[in-house]
Amino acid sequence: MNTESTNMSALRQSIFPIENWEIKKFLPFALIIGITVFNFTVLRNMKDALILTAPESGAEAVTYLKTLAVLPSVIFLSAMYVKLRKSCDFEKSYYIIVGSFLSFFTLFALFLYPNAEAIHFSPEQVMAWKLAFPRIQFVFPVIGVWSYSLFYVAAELWGTFCLSILFWQFANDNVGTNEAKRFYPLFLFVNAFATICVGNFLEYASSIEYDTVLFSTYMIIGMGVVMLSLFNHVNSRVLTDPMFVKDIADKGKKKSKMKLGFVDSMKQLASSPYIGYLSILILAYGMSINMIEVCWKSAAKSYYPTQDAYLAMMATYSKMTGYSGLVLVMISKGVLRRFGWLPCALVTPIMISVTGAGYFASVLFPGAFEPWMLLAGFTSPLAFTVMFGMLGVVLSKSSKYSFFDPTKEMAFIPLDYDLRISGKAAADGVAGRLGKSGASWIQMILYAVVAGGQTEIMPYLTVILFFLSIGWLVSATRLNVLYSNMVEKRRLEAESAVS
Q1: CATH topology for the 18-498 domain
Q2: CA pair distance 152, 143, nearest whole angstrom
Q3: Cα 177–Cα 336–Cα 286 angle in degrees, nearest 5
Q4: How many whole angstroms separate alpha carbon 463 and alpha carbon 347?
Q5: What is the DSSP string of 161-191?
Q6: How many CA atoms lie within 13 A of 366 on its CB side?
Q7: What are the CA-CA distances from residue 461 to residues 66, 226, 353, 445, 467 (Å)?
Q8: What is the residue extent of each domain of the chain?
């Protein structure tokens, strides 16, 4: 059935361009991504609060976690995901992966977190290790609070697999190209609303007489169960409806089992310029936001040293990100519809470059920003730096959700089915983590070379950010040509199949 919006007013097309008969499909997809993002955002705030405010820990410990724990876990689970997909269909794979995450969070809530003091190393032991090995001192807080580190890894993997791979694979397999132009921007609107809900939830969780981390973990588990129920509903009652058959060009391909193993997939990706450019985009984002965010969180931890204070700050950050995302999503819909793929794809690298350079400059040259600090009513340079950095991260993340994510996901749709699956696992799962872990490796090396923390390595990070931005912009421009050609090829194939 044709999914073009032809019977709607111009106002509705600009606000909610979904036909009445499509709501049965759109709404559960939107709820699934909303819950997935809600859990992801709560987990992101909790993992940072647990690690950053742990005894003898700080933002530098996050660098070691991303490199020595998160990256190997992503590579291993990406291989397992591809292997799982060879033996199971997507629906069963979804249940297995999401169920595994919920099982771990249940274990954390019932046993690991309540017994943290008994099972962790003492702060005195961690300090002794740091003094004995000063050039790798930041790795020892990771070991000292090992159950929090496991939670951190699981939280990172939730974003990679449940959101970036599972949801978007599900959407790309069941939402046609014409539908995606209308559905995907609204999915990002739901993302922004879910992020606002997280801010309000964390404020409420902090106000009640119950442990905030435990309360939040139980909420994550409950929302995860609802998410699985919605997923079952979509597969059993929505996608079985003849009205919701995807583009003819993709029929039959969805049902075939993936034939490529992980190693073979990586070999194929190495020879695919299309996936290569997509991977560069994802890698550049991961490296850029990691460098900026770790620097900002280092300052934030100094200004908000306790777990409750840090979570309260992250509640404000989540609401700011959500409200900013709502505005940018409305803008991105118009930009994508009027100007096409490339202008949308260029917004995020430009935003990160400008805000990142501004934040680094405010830390390296505080005197130049003193008039702005006084004008904004700040008397503490650290408070100004934290809020200025938060604003930069908020705008960068909001532009990522509003512009980068929909254009990245649209780029996967016209690919052959096997390449779409293996390419998404490698690009999102591996390139995404290589980006963040690559930035972490760079920072780890700089820590050892300069024997200092985030402030001391910031001049070097500024130079790296500049070159990353150039590579990102060039790759997006070249990918646009390949994407346009691929969309045209699929259109011709669909017309040929009909005739």
Answers
A1: Growth Hormone; Chain: A; (1.20.1250)
A2: 12
A3: 90
A4: 20
A5: IIIIIIIHHHHHHHS-HHHHHHHHHHHHHHH
A6: 13
A7: 17, 42, 12, 12, 10
A8: 18-498
> What is the predicted pLDDT for the residue at 265?
53
For the chain, the maximum distance between any two Cα atoms, rounded to a whole number of angstroms, is 75
Q: Give me the DSSP letters along 303-362.
A: HS-SHHHHHHHHHHHHHHHHHHHHHHHHHHHHHHHHH-HHHHHHHHHHHHHHHHHHHHHH
Mean pLDDT, rounded, for 192-201: 92
DSSP one-letter string for 212-274: HHHHHHHHHHHHHHHHHHHHHHIIIIITTSGGG---GGGTTTTTSPP---HHHHHHHHHT-HH
Mean pLDDT of 149-166: 92
- Which helix (H) or strand (E) is 412 found in, with range? helix 405-412
Residue pair 412/424 in contact (Cβ under 8 Å)? The answer is yes
CA–CA gap between residue 139 and residue 77 (Å, rounded)? 23
- Cβ proximity of 198 and 206 under 8 Å: no
| 322 contacts: CB under 8 Å, gap ≥ 6 | 192, 193, 194, 195, 196, 197, 198, 199
Is the predicted pLDDT of residue 260 greater than 50, yes or no? no
Q: Please provide the size of the chain in residues.
A: 499
CA dihedral sign, ordered 29, 33, 39, 42: negative
Whether the model clears a pTM of 0.85, i.e. scores above it, the answer is no
pLDDT at 467: 93
471-497 pLDDT tens trace: 999 999 999 999 888 888 877 877 777
Kindly state the helix (H) or strand (E) to which residue 8 belongs, with its residue range. Answer: none
Calculate the CA 244 to chain-centre distance.
28
User: At 125, is the secondary structure helix, strand, or coil?
Assistant: helix
Place of tokens 């850029």: 288
Q: Minimal CA–CA distance to 410: which of 494, 325, 357, 483?
A: 483
- Place 338 in a pLDDT band, splitting at 50, 70 and 90: confident
Interval 77-128: pLDDT, tens? 888 888 898 899 999 999 999 999 999 999 999 999 999 999 999 999 999 9
The secondary structure of residue 484, as a DSSP letter, is H
Q: CB neighbours of 358 closer than 8 A, spacing ≥ 6?
A: 388, 392
pLDDT digits (tens, 9 = 90+) for 48-80: 999 998 888 888 888 888 888 888 888 888 888
Q: What is residue 88's DSSP assignment?
A: S
Three-state DSSP string of 428-470 = HHHHHHHHHHHHHHHHHHHHHHHCCCHHHHHHHHHHHHHHHHH
C-alpha to C-alpha distance for 175 and 161, rounded to whole angstroms: 19
Are 300 and 386 spatial neighbours (Cβ–Cβ below 8 Å)? yes
